[in-house]
Amino acid sequence: MSDLKCGATSLDKPLDAAYWEAHYCAKTTGWDLGTVAPPIKMYIAKIVDKNSRILIPGCGNSYEAEYLLKQGFTDITVIDIAPTPASILQEKYKKNAAIQIVLGDFFEHQGNYDLIIEQTFFCALPPTMRQKYVWKMHQLLADKGILAGLLFSRTFESGPPFGGNQEEYEMLFKDAFSFLEMGMTQNSIAPRANSELFFELRKNSTVFVNMYQSENIKCSTSSSDVTEKLFTIEGVLNVSRSSDFEEILIVSIAPIDSKTIKDALSNSKEN
Fold this sequence. Notes:
Helix content is 26%, strand content 24%. It is α/β, with parallel strands linked by helices.
């Protein structure tokens, strides 16, 4: 991180609606398995409550939703930022009241869900957005709601997809969620064998999870220095700074106002 500049990313173009729509129109959707990923299919089979409120972000062609419907689930919401897959799903399920298809930005979505299924959404986001992902998932889940799915346990030369490893994922979700399961899958499809982690996390409803802007903090100030100073605030449990240095995720046992954050960081600013 020390060789990055403020606000800089390694992306040549923004991963916005136009980017993903272009891939769907060109049919260059290499992430599309054409079916439900086996670990997710196995997990769905274990869900008892068919009325669970389920969200699938970055749904694409949403084979997971199709499988959920066939299993009798009654309250499914899928969301994608690209018009083409959303339009196809809206037409396909226009007479099915058990599923709602949303065209829009996940980070602007409002709702309350018992389960959110992660399948190639996290890895499609710029790594700079990972802290925001944790914050939004915590916001959307109901009390003791579950976030479950697959994450890559490998790195890529360029992305998307963007990879990572179990250690960094554990640090990212720490305290905002309770870890029910996280480990290498044994039944991934062949091209992804030995490169996927299945995880199941439960929302920690006893904490506050918030995002703060890193304004007025110089890039040359190390993230470890920033983190150390934020941990001096009473009640702070976890701190994570985005890789573009622009945002900070803080998990705490009580709300923390911006002034408290600024006061704690005052010694981190360059003169």
